[in-house]
Structure formats: C-alpha cells, structure tokens
Amino acid sequence: MSETNNKRPSRLRGICAALAVVAVLLLALVVTSMIVEPKTNDSEYGLFDPATSGIRAEPADTIDVVVVGDSIALNGLAPLQTWHENGFTLFVCSTVAGKLPDGYTMLTRALERQHPKLVLIEAHPIFSEFTWDYALMSEAQTVFPVLRYHSRWRNLKAEDFTTRPQMTWHDERKGIRVEGEGVAVDQEALDNYMDDTGEVQTILPQNSLYLQRMVSLCESVGATPVIISVPSVVGWSKAHHEAMSAWANEHNVAFYDFNLVSPEEIGIDWSEDSKDGGEHFNVIGASKFSRYLAKVLKRDFDLPDHRGDKAYAEWEELYQSAD
Amino acid sequence: MTSYFTLIFLVVFLPLVLLAYAAVPKRLRGYVLLCASYFFAWCISGPRITFMLISTLCVYGIARAMDARIQKRDAQLAQVKKGKREIKASCKHQLNQLLVAGVMVNLGILIALNYLGFFGELATAALGLLGIHAHFEFPRIGAPIGISFYTLMAISYLVDVSRETIKADHHFGRLALFLSFFPHIMEGPIARYTQTATALWEGRDLSAQNSYRGMLRMAIGFAKKLLVADRLNLYVKTIFTDYASYDGGLIALGAVLYTLQLYCDFSGCMDVAIGLGQFFGAEYPENFRQPFFSRTTSEFWQRWHITLGQWFKDYVYYPVSLSKPVKRLTTKARKRFGNRYGPLLVSGIALFCVWLGNGLWHGAGSQYLFFGMYYFVLIWLGGFIEPNARAWAADHGIDRERGAYRVFRTVRTLMAVFVGELFFRAEGLEAGLAMFGKMLSNFSLASFADGTVFTLMSKADFAVALFFVAVVFIYDTAYERGFDVRKMIEEKGFVLRWAIWIAIVMTVVIFGAYGFGYVAVDPMYAQY
Questions:
Q1: What is the span of the domain harbouring residue A237?
Q2: Are the C-beta atoms of residues B329 and B349 closer than 8 Å to each other?
Q3: In this structure, which of A158, A190, B125, B246 has its CB flanked by the most CB atoms within 10 Å?
Q4: B259 Cβ partners below 8 Å, 6+ apart?
C-alpha cells in the first residue's frame, strides 16, 4: 500500500517533468520560428514561392475567385484580362509541383482576409502523390515556420529579431506566372487525348482527405468550392476525369472538366497555344482559356461586376499597363 | 514512413508504440514490439516482408529440429556406456546437415533477391570471353528492408544453436522479434541472440532513465546525420556523379568528405537504433569505436562496422582457419616458410573468404568486389609488414604509439581508408578507377584557390559541416581517452541534462540539412 502511495507522487512528478520539457521545446520552436520567419511576403526575406503569398497583401474581401493548384493553374489563367472583360477579381494561389497539403496551406492563408464567392480547385494536384510524412511535415511547417525557413540563419538581419511579418508586397500579376513561346503538341498525343480506355485513375486516401479539408475550409467561410480541370493534353486523361467525376459526385462538389470541351469551342490551337507541347498553356493559350472559363463562371455563378468601383481601380490600371 | 528520420516515425509511430507498450500487461509487450516491427517493415517494403517471415519460420523450424536431435543424443548417451563417440558423431553430422540446409535457405533468399542479376551479368561476361554468346537475365523482385542484416543474424543464431552455445528458442514470437525488431532492421547493429532476444521479449518497464538515455542517443544520431552527413551530400553527390568535370584535388576532397558523410550517416543511424533499443531496455552492441584513430587498416575494421567484422570473424574466419584442410596446410607452410611467414601465408585463405564475403555483402557490383579485395590485400600484406616495422622501430628507438610516428600511422591508415571509400562510393569500378586516376594524374589545388570548390557547396554549408565535424572529432577524442561524454550528461541534474537535449534538438532543427535546398538522403546502409 505504501509502495503504491510512493509511486503516485513519483509518477506525477515524472508527468510534470515531461510536460515541462515538452513546453520548453515548443517554446523554443515558437521563438526561433518568430526569428527566422520571412518578414515580408516577397523574396527579400527569403520567402519561398512569393507568388503564392501575393494575395495576403490584397485589401480585405476584394477577391471574388481564388484559384489553388500547381503549375497548370499558374500558367493557365489571365486574372487581369478576366477582370477587364468581366469585372470580377480572380487571384491564383499556386506553386510549381504543388501538392494538396501545399494547396491547403495556401488556401488557409488566402482565406484569412478574403471571403471569395468561389474557390476553384484545379484538379491536377489531386492526382499528385504525396506521403503522409509529407503532409505531416507540411502541417508542422505551418505551425512552426522554423521547420521551413531554418536555413535563413545565414541571412538573418537585426530586424528579424524585432519585427513581425508584414504583408507589403503586391503581386501585379495576381499570382500567375505564364510564360514561354508556342510549342506544338505531338500529333499522336493529340490523337489519343481523352480517349476512353476504360481505365480509372486512383485518388489516394491522403489526397482525398486533403481535398475534403479544402472543401470544408471553403464552406466554412461561405465560399463555393468548385473543382476545375484546365485543358492539358499531356497531364490529363479520361481516366483522371472518371476518378474526379466519381469523387465530385460522391462529395457533392461541382466539377468542370474543360478537357472534355472541344478545343474549337474554347478556341485553343494546340499547335501554338502551349509552351511545352501540351502540358501547360502559354500566354495566348491562358488568355483563350480564361475567356472561356470566365464565361462559364458568369453563367453558372452569381459573380459581381466591380468595374467602375474606385476600390478596384488598381485592377484596371494594372490591366492597361500590362496590355 | 521510410526510416527513423521521418517526422511521422518520431511524432506518430514511436509515441504510439511506447504508449501501447506501456499500456498492455508485461507478457504482451513483446507482441506489441513484434507487431510494430512488422508494421514498420511493411511501411518500407510492403508485401516483400513475407521473405522475412519465411526466413524466420525456416530458422525457427530448423533450430527446433536441431534441439530435438541434441536432446535425442543426450538421451542416447545417458543410456549407453559404449559407442558414445559414434552417437556424438552421428548427431554432429545431422546437426551440420540441418545447419547447411538453414544457411542455404537464408542465403538462397538473399542471393535470389539481391544478387541474381549481378551473377547473371558475370556469367554472361564470362561466357562472352569464351566466345559463347549467352544472356542471363533474371527478374528483379526486390528485397525487404534489412535482409542483409537479419540474414546474418539468422545464420549466427543457427550456427550458435548447432554449436550448442545457445539453446534453440521454443517461442516463435521471441525469435521473430529478435530478427525483426524495428530499430535494427534498417541498418543493424547485427546483434547476437544472447544480446537482445530475452531482454526485448521480457517487456521491461519503461523508465525515465532509459528514456533519457535513448532520447539523448537518438538526438546525437540525428545531429550526426542532419548536421554533417546530409549536408556533405551536396558536395559528394555532385563529385561522384559528374567526376569528369572536376580536377583531382576536388575528387580527393570528395573521397574525404564521402568518408566523413558515411561515418556520420551510418554511426548516426546506429546511435538512433541503439537509442531506440534503450527505451525498451535492450542494449545493442556498439558498431563504431572512433575508427579514425586507427593505426592500421586491420584496426580500422575492428572499430568500423564492428558487428559485421565480428560476425565474419566468428562465422567465416575462424571456421575456415580451423578447418582440417587449412590446418594441414598451415602445418606444411610452417615447415616450408617458417613459423612467422607460414601461418601468415595460409591465413590469407580465411582472410580472402572474409573479404570476398564482406565485399559482396555490401552489394552486387564490381566496385564492392574490388572494395573487398582491396582490404584483403592491405590487411594480408599488413600482416607481413607489421613485424618488420615493429622491429625497425625498436632498432631505431622509436615509440610507435606516441608522437610523430603514431600520427604517421594514423594518417597513412586514413589515406588507405579514403581510397577504399572512393571505390566503394564510385558508380561502378570503371568510374572508381577513373576517379583514382584523376586524383593522381590531375591533382591540383587551383579549384580551391579560384573558388570552384564553392560551386559544389556553399561557404556557409562548408563552415557548418566543418564546425560539426570538429565537434564529432572532439566527441570521439574524448571517448578515445576514456571520457564518456554521454554518461557525463546523463548524470547531470534534471534541468541541465534536459537543457542539453533541447539544445541538441534545436541545433538540428536550425542547422540541419533538410527542407528547401537540400535533398533528403535515406540512411546509406539501408540499401545493403
């Protein structure tokens, strides 16, 4: 009996000691995170992928459509043209080879100050494999930026120890990074494009989980999640379409596969509208596709027209200067 | 989950295993570890872990059969007064047959999964030399994680049972856990049955002391790997894949840095494995003992990958040396070449077998064969030179264990090691020879003077790597001089010892070579 009584305080002491160690470790991670975290939302302080964080400097609640995805989305849209022709604002938050955990993080950050009508989830990364460890690390990096930005120790400045991050950088391209000349698509690839082979791609459990999280996140801020698939001869197939359709039906999420729309209807000429032979659009391809996408979105969703509103004057100025 | 060096292992798998281990009754803890071990192996190897299960079943069954035969022999011996020798000989014969069967099955699986392709290439090339055009190509199945390690452990267990130095384990779970326990399955250490099997299956209580020892050891392992090894990979990978673009000076530095990378990677993994074992009260044998302080290549291999060297010594070197034909040959050689050189000459047979096995164990490739033969020649010749060198030093009044001569011996050994590791890491024997040739014929320090060296790895990465290499050197020097740094930390008060642990962890977090700009490097010996 006395032995049991002796063990209890000892066990309690052990638990308290363990908690104290964990608390100090977490505190150390928080403090170092505050120091090494980039202090602006551009590359001046070593921020990776600044294009994904441009939206954080936009005035609150001024973005109507947020797009998350990977390089397909980065190269596939023309936000300023969409603004000029339709009057709604669209911002692309995507990164090259982005996986869904990256997309989820970007979307979380984007929705901190924005309450868009629509969130377009570009479908290519939904089929991009990642491990549970990758997802866990992505979450940990969000909580403790030191895990992502630890290498900044070599570039630390005095103000890193005294200031908090400020979102000072405006992305004049609204998130896109379209570039490149026209490279014709291989004829054989074009002939087989979207052929029905009877196959169905697999959406991995971890991908499905993150997609559900993104959908829930959208719904929590009153945004409508919509999955879209930007035309891509090389990176998309009927097998992808089947899997995506099944998932979207099951989870009651709208899905627009623009790979099923004939190129003529969109106006795409695959001999000159891709920068790399069919995977990504170039500037002309992005312009044509954006025009078509905007028409569909205007038709199916109640999107505002801010043209003439002084609060949005910058968008028109940027369009005119970019033109 | 691909290794210990993943977040999911550290913050999900390990805590869950510890929780489950602590929550279940003592008699079930072994099963928790066994399930965790097979789950860990499954995460890395998938269905291929079936081969591990087959090996375990085979070893278990054959050891039980040996045990039954030994018991039968003892019963027979107790009943007779004459003919005991025949009974023993018959038993010995059958034990040997069983042992050969067990070894064949285990080695057969290892060879089928790891070496058939290589042997097919060799056979094709050999027949080609004879003018016979044949092509041997075998399907690549892929091996489960740790096959080279648990196969050696399985063989050592069978040999020990047949030698009657241990009794066959009648508990399948305990034997399975001994072979598959997740800390050692990736890279060893190659433990013996008596070292870990019982302790692991006992289900000892988790204790604060063991937990701290384990966590400190793991933190040190992570530091070696992430601060030094994975950072040096920036330089090493480029130099070894594109050696033709660089001069001999940069290649020589590549050989040195690769040796340091391999040491910090492999010994770091051993720290993690041994630390994980300590959580559960199992003491794994050490695999490294300050190898860079060695005076000879022979001594180097007594300090580097110790458990592998010890395994080859116990299960290849001694059996070959003590076999009847070799003993007969030794007697003849003594008469012909004298007592000094006769046995040395014949010892080459056992040594050759050891280094052929050692080279091939590391992988199916001509560079590994060369690596084995390189050390065979160095160590065998060293045996002839050593007595003469000792006599020469005595004649000249030189103390070989102190001062400049001691430094000379260490530096000479290091040179030999660096060259060996160059061939070991090279992408094929041809590349190794080309790199070695460039080191000799195109050696220049110009790339260091004009800054080309920093195009391979930044100054900041060099600075961090060198700083932490210096820390490892000081740490090893302390051990070499009998000062146990870890024990000293473990004996400090609660606040100080945990402050040290947190400091190590935060150093790894901040200065570790992971994330953007670095490539995650899987534990290097996990491929063998």
A1: 42-154+168-322
A2: yes
A3: B246
A4: B417, B418, B421
**Helices B230-241 and B459-480, axial angle in degrees (round to 10):** 110
Closest CA to A105 of A136, A75, A76, A65: A136
CATH of the domain at A103: 3.40.50.1110
Q: What is the pLDDT along chain A (323 residues), one digit of tens a residue?
A: 444 455 556 778 888 999 999 999 999 999 999 999 999 888 777 777 777 888 999 999 999 999 999 999 999 999 999 999 999 999 999 989 899 999 999 999 999 999 999 999 999 999 999 999 999 999 999 999 999 999 999 989 999 999 998 888 889 999 998 888 889 999 999 999 999 988 999 999 999 999 999 999 999 999 999 999 999 999 899 999 999 999 999 999 999 999 999 999 999 999 999 999 999 999 999 999 999 999 999 999 999 999 999 999 999 999 999 86
- ipTM score assigned to the predicted complex: 0.87
Q: How many domains does chain A have?
A: 1
Does residue A194 lie in a domain region? Answer: yes
Whether A92 and chain B come into contact, CB under 8 Å, resolves to: no
B511/A133 touch (CB, cutoff 8 Å), yes or no: no
Residue A3 belongs to some domain of the structure: no
Name the residue among A17, A151, A153 with its Cβ closest to that of B517: A151
Residues 39 through 78 of chain A touching chain B, CB cutoff 8 Å? 48
Whether A7 contacts chain B with CB within 8 A: no
- What residues of chain A lie within 8 A of the CB of B511, using their CB? 150, 153
Q: Which of B460, B494, B509 sits opposite A150 (nearest CB)?
A: B509
Minimal Cα distance from B10: which residue of A?
A133
DSSP track, A66-119? EEEESHHHHTT--HHHHHHHH---EEEEE-TT--HHHHHHHHHHHTTT---SEE
How far is B198 from B309, CA to CA, in rounded Å? 24
B506 contacts A28? CB cut-off 8 A:
yes
Question: Would you state the structure tokens that stand for residue A296, as one six-digit string?
Answer: 């569909």
Residue A153 to residue B2, Cβ atoms within 8 A: no
Using a CB–CB cutoff of 8 Å, tell me whether A304 touches chain B.
no
Answer yes or no: are the C-beta atoms of A249 and A242 closer than 8 Å: no
Determine, yes or no, domain membership for A15: no
Order of strands, sheet of A90-94, starting from the edge strand that comes earlier in the sequence: A90-94, A65-69, A118-122, A224-229, A254-257
SS3 at position A122 = strand
- The answer as to whether A20 is a domain residue is no
